[in-house]
Amino acid sequence: MAAPRIPEKDLGRKESRKLSRSFGLLAVLGTVLALAGLVGLVYVGVATLTSMLLFGWLLLIGGVVGLAHAVQSRDSSFFWLGVVVAALNIAAGVVVIRHPGDSAEALTMFAALLFLTGGVFRLVGSVVVRGPQFGWTLVQGAFGLLLGILVLADWPHSSLYVLGTFFSLALLFDGLGLIAIGVGGRRVVGLVEEGIRGPGPESDSPDRSSKGKPGGRDRSGD
Hints:
This protein is mostly helical. 78% of the residues lie in helices and 0% in strands. The two termini are 53 Å apart.
């Protein structure tokens, strides 16, 4: 005996409900990330230490996983390279976890130097090339150069808030993006679900609705 066939409308409704729940979870996750970003912007020092500890644990876990992968593929020609890279990741993770403040100072200096060099290259490139995005590239270069100078001018005190600010802003914008995707996805799923349901019984043809009205004419007796 064949199993009863589920109507396509019911299947469509089930899938739309699953999608709606998934988009709802995305919106909830985005709200949590956005709130964490706002809290991090208020407590920037705590956000800096948190980001450094998270970075250290990521390095440590990545190094352990890389070492295990290198041991599994020890017959390959890249065995020693994988071991060296994994050992460096483990050592860097241990140093960052044990000394988050000093690591934050070093990374802040590195970020400032990146801002400086990137700003100089953008400024020089925009002046030399003078392409269609000349003005925008010039503004980006000037902003990067100014940001690098400001960070270096207040170093090492700037290491207490620079990384935490960037980390918190990343959380905030990622959270807002997830909220937009979740809310927009739920709206799209709702529109699709309305299309699956189809028109209701009140939206019959105008001939039926006007047949019983006083002004309507019944053409059946013509």
